[in-house]
Design a protein that fits this description.
Elements (H helix, E strand, L loop, with lengths): L6 H16 L6 E2 H8 L13 H13 L3 E4 L9 E4 L13 H13 L4 H7 L9 H13 L6 E3 L11 E3 L25 H28 L1
Antiparallel strand pairs: 1-3, 2-3, 4-5
């Protein structure tokens, strides 16, 4: 895997992937729409204030890398629109499942995240049946023959979950999942940490839905 993006290029690709899925009727994106997507206050970390000129520079660079193409209406004065050629297109061999693409997209837009955060924040892009499917998808992205595409970061002190980062902006050393003593639940049900993880995922999902609703209201 020899794809490498600058931080702004990663944001542009992430926005094009997201909007292709969530607002297909408005895709491809004009420069203005793409700039607004890059500067969106929700579902972005960090929140940026990029000018159209800076976004255009990133788009031009991505076009030279054959990662973005423009689509002109063919009439004088019509606005040029842009679409990605990053993956799942006829232009390249890079293919992802819906779940893999959802994780890659959110990592491009929000940086390193835990499995619980990824499950909650991909709810508008794809569907995971349970936490185990998230873990399996992350493992697949780390072990694919044409990858790896993500890396597991060292677990922070006191943290219950490791964070994962995409590898499209340079190499990141991946670490093994730390081993620990398994918790046992006297009743045979979920352990305390499992219940906390479920609650956190539910809260993240609710927050994502609130953010999406706020963004929709702001556009009206």
């Amino acid at each position: 895997m020899n794809i490498e993006f600058s931080p702004i290029e990663a944001r542009v690709i992430g926005c094009l992937l997201e909007k292709e899925i969530t607002t297909p009727d408005q895709y491809p994106l004009s420069l203005n729409a793409l700039t607004n997507a890059c500067n969106q206050k929700t579902n972005r970390d960090p929140v940026l204030e990029l000018s159209e000129a800076v976004v255009q520079q990133a788009v031009d660079s991505l076009m030279k890398k054959y990662m973005v193409s423009d689509k002109s209406a063919g009439y004088a004065g019509r606005v040029t629109k842009y679409k990605h050629r990053f993956c799942n297109t006829e232009f390249g061999s890079l293919k992802f499942s819906k779940q893999e693409l959802g994780i890659i997209c959110v990592l491009l837009l929000r940086g390193a995240q835990t499995p619980g955060e990824l499950r909650a924040r991909t709810n508008r892009l794809c569907e995971f049946t349970d936490a185990e499917q998230v873990e399996a998808t992350l493992k697949a992205l780390m072990t694919r023959e044409d990858g790896p595409f993500i890396a597991r970061l060292p677990r922070a002190a006191g943290a219950r979950e490791s964070r994962y980062s995409h590898l499209f902006s340079g190499h990141v050393e991946s670490v093994e999942e730390p081993l620990g003593e398994p918790e046992e639940s006297p009743s045979g049900g979920p352990t305390l940490s499992q219940r906390v993880s479920q609650l956190e995922a539910a809260v993240q999902q609710l927050q994502s839905q609130v953010d999406a609703l706020a963004a929709e209201l702001a556009r009206r």
